[in-house]
Design goal:
284 residues, Rossmann fold, two-stranded antiparallel ribbon
């Protein structure tokens, strides 16, 4: 059996050769998962031999990653705004881009003060948005919806882990259908990748993440049209629509909202890469 040092080196090269740029980091995470050792302990034990059982487990994990299964699915979790979240192929992997959406709401609430409000998170997936909002703003009542019952299983598990189950009402249904009353915030990171663009995505995304959470089909603006028109009847006066958008979509979404008299104070926020990522609008 190879030493820990040799295992890390050889697997790093395999991952890099497969086009995975973070091969060294991922090799240590996968070996850590197999052995139960964190990165620091692995580094301090590079001369030790990997046991047979640990080696077999490590090789199985490595082969999964070489097939471009997302690391987060292999590890079974990811981090979103400092919170560990369980993820699996039933849910989209939360990304830093979506943190811009959550931060926008937290910024608004910091200025507004604290009084009970209802937030609807449409297409909650892993529950990332709903859970961070609930933990950060305990006076909020959160409704989290998804069309996938499997996704809601994951979201409920995450909410329970972070102690906010009582604050979040999980509802099964498509789009806005599960909402039965007015909300102050209508929030969503909806499917927005055009169907014809799916083939050009990274294999981790294209081949593994749930297709329904990635694309609405041939019209990438489908959900923004729904939120702009039908959402206007659900958001209370003074409330907000807050949505994540894809690269190059912000101006089209702004135009949709500007064409309707119900919305004003429309704002666009950029992500860390200076890409227009979030659109906000206030209900008159």
């Amino acid at each position: 059996m190879p030493t820990i040092g040799d295992a890390l080196y050889l697997s790093s090269r395999q991952l890099l050769d497969a086009g995975i740029d973070t091969g060294s980091l991922e090799a240590s995470l996968l070996l850590g998962l197999a052995t139960g050792l964190d990165r620091l302990r692995l580094i301090n034990r590079t001369a030790e031999t990997v046991g047979d059982a640990h080696w077999d487990q490590f090789q199985a994990l490595l082969q999964r990653r070489l097939r471009r299964e997302p690391l987060q699915y292999i590890l079974g979790e990811t981090e979103f705004m400092g919170l560990p979240l369980t993820v699996n192929p039933d849910v989209l992997i939360p990304r830093a881009d979506t943190e811009i959406l959550v931060e926008a709401i937290l910024d608004i609430e910091e200025e507004r003060g604290s009084s009970p409000l209802v937030v609807a998170d449409i297409g909650t997936g892993s529950g990332a948005i709903a859970i961070v909002l609930a933990k950060s703003l305990p006076y909020l009542e959160v409704i989290a919806t998804d069309i996938s019952p499997e996704a809601l299983v994951v979201a409920r598990l995450n909410a329970e882990h972070h102690g906010v189950s009582d604050q979040i009402d999980f509802r099964l249904g498509d789009g806005l259908a599960p909402l039965t009353g007015k909300v102050h915030y209508l929030v969503s990171n909806p499917p927005y990748v055009a169907q014809e663009d799916i083939a050009g995505l990274e294999p981790e995304v294209r081949d593994w993440e749930p297709r329904g959470a990635l694309t609405p089909g041939t019209d990438p603006l489908r959900w923004y049209r729904t939120f702009a028109v039908d959402g206007a009847a659900l958001v209370e006066s003074g409330g907000m629509l807050a949505v994540e958008v894809g690269m190059g979509q912000a101006r089209d979404v702004v135009a949709l909202l500007e064409a309707l008299p119900e919305w004003h104070e429309i704002e666009v926020r950029e992500d860390l890469g200076k890409i227009e990522r979030v659109v906000l609008a206030r209900r008159r």
